[in-house]
Amino acid sequence: QVQLVESGGGSVQAGGSLRLSCAASGSTYCRYGMSWYRQAPGKEEREFVSMFDNYGRPSYADAVKGRFTFSRDSTENTVYLQMNSLKPEDTAMYYCKMRCPWGTTYWGQGTQVTVSS
């Protein structure tokens, strides 16, 4: 059974940093298709934050480029989102997503990030 467990969220002041983690278990073939999304308060849809491209290079939404870093550990079972220079507009529930090569998608339960001004 596939599981994604996020951690690392919290409350920080603007300019602060947080590191989110997402630990994946239950699937060997899907772990390369991991990404981060977020859903801000009052918004109905989740927005893309970061992912690895087909060459394993991270790509980022314009809103976080230069401030967030997406990485994974050597086992490739855990991915991280290092978030620096946080802004109040980064406040959201952050979700880890895993997409398998055949299209099946899994989501974690989310971790809350709150940035105060």
Can you tag this structure with a few keywords?
single chain, about 120 residues, mainly beta, seven-stranded mixed beta sheet, four-stranded antiparallel beta sheet, 11 strands, about 0% helix
How many H/I helical runs?
0
- Give a count of the beta strands, DSSP E runs of length 2 or more: 11
Distance between the termini: 41 Å
Q: What is the makeup of the main sheet?
A: 7 strands, mixed
Query: Helical residue percent?
Result: under 10%
**Residues in β-strands, percent:** over 45%
* Poorly predicted parts: none
Describe this structure in words.
The protein is 0% helix and 51% strand. By secondary structure, it is mainly beta. A hairpin with a 5-residue loop joins strand 7 (68-72) and strand 8. The termini are far apart.
Secondary structure blueprint with pairings:
Layout: E1 3-7, E2 10-13, E3 18-25, E4 34-39, E5 47-52, E6 58-60, E7 68-72, E8 78-83, E9 92-99, E10 105-107, E11 111-116
What's the quick description here?
The chain has 117 residues and is an all-beta fold.
